[in-house]
Design a protein that fits this description.
The structure holds two protein chains of two kinds.
Chain A lengths: L2 H9 L3 H23 L2 H18 L9 H32 L23 H11 L4 H12 L4 H7 L4 H28 L1
Chain B lengths: L1 H11 L14 H40 L10 H8 L4 H10 L1
The chains are: A mainly alpha, B mainly alpha.
């Protein structure tokens, strides 16, 4: 069944239409959230929030873009929102620890083991994830969507609501920045 | 130096050939369960808000009805002026008797 039929089904209160949409996009949505949040439970919670947001705002979908584009855009926004909340929590945790309260927050997921990465690449991927975190948000978005989600530049431009040339430029700068920070990392590693 | 560049290149390409990630089974069941919980919580908080509003209105009504309204004494301006200048009927009568 095509997306348009599923959307009109959802608008008319057809639960099976919603179920089919969820089943069609749940894996990719979860994968996007996982790339940003680097924690399987957080990624699942955020993916659920994406579909709850979709359920609540399906009437606002104007059909100018693909449904997938819309869902992935919500997934990115929700993931970034979650990251901001985590950062705010960390700051609050730091303040609590200053006043003697126990900081129960986990340390940054720098040793994150992405389930989709090939075994022989896991160690390098973990290093790369750590360096991607340092990139500006726009560059991080483009790099993750292209490299981890295997999206084309055209798809990324649609999801991020920007131009193809902007995506190309952001990808170029992301690679440059990563090369530079990885060079520092490996040089210091060699010296140790 | 060449080694480092090779390392960087390998690390940058470490996401290549990754396999698609899948959600854990029964994702939809967990999603609908969460949506139901959210709905119930919204309904409960809505009910509490309505109950609180009704209670406030009732308390206001009860307090309005239980406190007797202040009755303003009505003053007749002529009577007021008469009493001010001692021109009441009884005064005139008393003066005449005294005379």
């Amino acid at each position: 069944m095509k997306d348009e039929k599923l959307i009109s089904g959802m608008i008319n209160g057809d639960e099976s239409a919603f179920k089919r949409i969820v089943e069609a996009y749940q894996d990719k949505t979860y994968s996007i959230c996982l790339g940003y949040l680097k924690n399987e439970q957080d990624a699942e919670d955020t993916a659920q929030e994406v579909f709850i947001a979709l359920f609540r705002s399906i009437n606002d979908f104007d059909g100018q873009s693909e449904l997938s584009t819309w869902i992935y855009r919500i997934a990115i926004n929700k993931s970034l929102e979650q990251l901001r909340k985590q950062k705010a929590k960390k700051r609050f945790g730091f303040l609590s620890s200053l006043f003697g309260q126990e900081d129960q927050l986990e340390s940054a997921h720098s040793d994150f083991d992405h389930p989709g990465i090939k075994l022989e690449n896991k160690e390098r991927a973990s290093v790369l994830f750590g360096h991607i975190e340092k990139l500006p948000e726009a560059q991080r978005n483009v790099f993750l969507l292209h490299k981890l989600e295997d999206m084309s530049y055209k798809e990324i431009a649609q999801v991020l609501n920007t131009t193809l040339s902007s995506v190309e430029s952001l990808m170029f700068r992301a690679k440059k920045n990563l090369q530079k920070s990885l060079k520092d990392y490996y040089q210091n590693d060699k010296m140790l | 130096m060449k080694d480092i560049e090779k390392e960087i290149e390998k690390t940058l390409n470490s996401f290549d050939e990754n396999k698609a990630v899948k959600v854990k089974p029964y994702f939809y069941t967990r999603l609908t369960a969460r949506m139901e919980v959210n709905n119930t919580q919204t309904n409960i908080s809505l009910k509490w808000s309505i109950a609180a509003l009704v209670l406030i209105v009732l308390v206001n009504l009860v307090s309005l009805l239980s406190i007797p309204a202040e009755t303003e004494e009505e003053f007749d301006p002529i009577e007021m002026m008469a009493s001010e200048y001692s021109l009441t009927n009884s005064d005139i009568y008393n003066t005449m008797i005294e005379e």
